[in-house]
């Protein structure tokens, strides 16, 4: 009887640990995916900003050439 009770407790503990592990793993995966999406959106914004800055630099160079 005692062995059955211990086995039942062990199974319950194992199930709880498995649930906790899967929840922790899922949380990590979701966090990594969200951070990757945020990083990609920021990189895309910076790419368009760098193009605008490059065009502005070219315009400045050309306007300086005109005044000389």
Please tell me about this protein's structure.
This protein is mainly alpha-helical and 68 residues long. Helices cover 97% and strands 0% of the residues. The chain has one helix and no strands. It has one helix spanning 2-67. The longest helix has 66 residues, at 2-67. The protein starts with a helix and ends with a helix. The model has no long low-confidence stretch (mean pLDDT 89). It comes from Flavobacterium bomense. Pfam families: PilJ (PF13675). The chain crosses the membrane at residues 20-39. This is NarX-like N-terminal domain-containing protein. It is found in: Membrane.
Would you kindly provide a brief summary of this structure?
The chain crosses the membrane at residues 20-39. The protein has 68 residues and is an all-alpha fold.
Which features would summarize this protein structure in a list?
68 residues; mainly alpha; 1 helix; rod-shaped; transmembrane helix; NarX-like N-terminal domain-containing protein; transmembrane; NarX-like_N
H and E string:
H
What is the terminal separation in angstroms? 100 Å
How many distinct helices?
1
Strand content: under 5%
List low-confidence stretches: none
Topology:
Layout: H1 2-67
């Amino acid at each position: 009887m005692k062995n059955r009770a211990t086995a039942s407790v062990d199974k319950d503990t194992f199930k709880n640990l498995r649930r906790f592990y899967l929840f922790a793993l899922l949380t990590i995966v979701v966090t990594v995916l969200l951070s990757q999406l945020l990083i990609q959106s920021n990189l895309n914004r910076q790419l368009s900003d760098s193009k605008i800055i490059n065009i502005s630099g070219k315009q400045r160079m050309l306007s300086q050439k005109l005044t000389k």
